[in-house]
Amino acid sequence: DLERIEVLRGPQGTLYGRNATAGAANIITRRPSASPEANASLTLGSESLVQGSFGAAGPLVEGRLAARASLSYEDRDGYRENLTTGNDIDDNRLRSGRASLWWTPTDQLEIVLRGDYATQDASTGNFQSLASVPCSLASTPENLGGFLSFPNPNFGGAIPAQVFNLTFPTATRPVVQDPDDLEVRHNVDARRSIEQKGLSLTATWTTDALTAKFIASHRDDAMNFLSDSDATDALLLTNDARQNTEQRTYELNLSGSMLGGDATWLLGAYYFEDEGQARFYYDLDALQRTYEAIFGLFGPGQAPLPPGSLAAFGVRLKTGQPRPEPFLDFRITQESESKAVFGPGTWSATDALRLTLGLRYTADSKDVHRELTNNLGGAPCNSFTDKEWDQFTGTAIADYRVSDDVLTYLSVSRGYKAGGFNAGQCFAGFNPENLTAYEVGVKSQAFDDRVQLNASVFVYTYKDIQVNQFIQNASTVTNAAEADIRGVELELLALPTEHLTLTGGLTFLDTEYGGGATFGNPISGGNAVNVDGNDLLRSPKWKLYAAVQYAWNLPVGTVTAKVDAAYSDKYYFDVFEASLPGQGEMEQEAYTIANLRLGWESNDGNYHVDAFVENFTDELSS
After folding, report:
1. Tell me, what's the pLDDT at 17?
2. DSSP readout, 473-503?
3. Is the dihedral of CA 287, 288, 291, 293 positive or negative?
4. Cα 603 from chain centroid?
5. CA-to-CA dists, residue 149 to 167, 175, 372, angstroms
6. Is 606 helix (H, G, I), strand (E, B) or coil?
7. Model confidence, pTM
8. Residue 525: pLDDT above 70?
9. Following DSSP, what letter does each residue of 524-590 receive, concatenated?
10. Average pLDDT for 455-469
11. Which of 14-28, 70-84, 607-621 has the highest mean pLDDT?
12. 8 Å CB contact between 200 and 217
């Protein structure tokens, strides 16, 4: 049901909406057809993979009303095994459907109604334990008693666990795993269930002078997620997460041309509202005896509390009831609103020179209610916070056609992403980020259009860049002072012969934090660490892509063979470049993924069959 995908790099906030600082990926679905058509596909693969899709379209009232519908299906067994439960994990079950209706009640008015629905049930999000680092209690999965298992001066140098005959559960060894190991030991199988549904309406009214377009959409998403966050078979940190959002957007824009068609313009207004809730319920059953001992030994009684005493220290958000085992519950409810007006325009100053200027004003507001309860001794939280931000963003582009085969361009654009709030924090939040992007490039064709070469050089400058860190088992967004990205990108498409196609791409990135960017250790806290000069998250210095395809025209159709490979340089998952103690695994080593494909297509183009092997070198990336 896919017509095309548009990948737009750099800030796109002028036209394509809110928070589009890095770029936009526009997925364009096929519209209802004026003539009957149908398509079907079936894919079979390893791990009992079955993928299927079917679509059909056609007119309902000739020239006035047409419809399209499609269904898709996927089943795949897991390719890893949980040795504790004996089950395969990382399986996937996906069902989805789309429908659209095209109606032209008059020659000037066009209405398109679209709806979609999807469900997924998968055993995904299975963590691996790559390092064992003590938490604030000095506990590890191998020693859940923590400092109670060490000599303590408060007990005359004796070991409290021995003095009071305390025993603590331990995880099955090995706790630390090889990143390439496909087996895990979890006390539960991770499970994710998702339900998504959406509805949109696009009404377009066209006259000789202008075009008016109104777009309205409504979307509901819900997800339930169960995971073993400690990645061991100890009941140490089991997360039961539930999230749901309800979004509505409305947009009205007017567009037209002037100066004899040499200039085009668009003026628009946009409104967005979102209501969402996220709930994170953590069970820490394996630490029950540890906390009972701590509360008793260092409290008035000077002895471990009786089993079950933790029920007196907190009521769960999850159930509204006390619990004798340790728990940690977060809940966040947020309402967001965004309003914007925007207006890009393009002027063909000469036959070769074209100028584009766009401006957008955005006003965002968020109201959040955050709750936190536990029976681990920490203070509960019940806070209400609201915040507003606004920003001007825009784009300026000059492109010059040197010849029919060479186009050069220069662009400056500014993007903005609203601030927000973290579920695991009671009062703090994070600020908006701003990005100014500069790009100069050339798009060219040569040798009778048999070679296409595109090149660009770009510089991105961030202010208050939003950084996603994994802190104390929670994903937390914080701001760095500044960050810069400098890069070069090359793209090549060549047709040396009628049958041979060569494709290639190269990207070089030089990234760094700056301006005194500092972050605390995500595990132990302590003094803030300056990360100026460090690479940005997930930013490999080099990426390369190459593909070779050859086609044979036969009486029974066309046979095509293709091999492609993509290389990624190393990159980091944290701002510290994996340099802090116990966090050496926060680095992704360089890797290459290579694929093979052999296909046949009938002469009329109605049928095709492909045999393929993805990642035929069996590369594993941690």
Report:
1. 65
2. TEEEEEE-SEEEEEEEEEEEEE-SSSSEEEE
3. negative
4. 40
5. 9, 19, 30
6. coil
7. 0.90
8. no
9. TEEEEEE-BTPPPTT--SEEEEEEEEEEEEETTEEEEEEEEEEEE--EESSTTTT-STT-TTSEEPP
10. 94
11. 70-84
12. yes
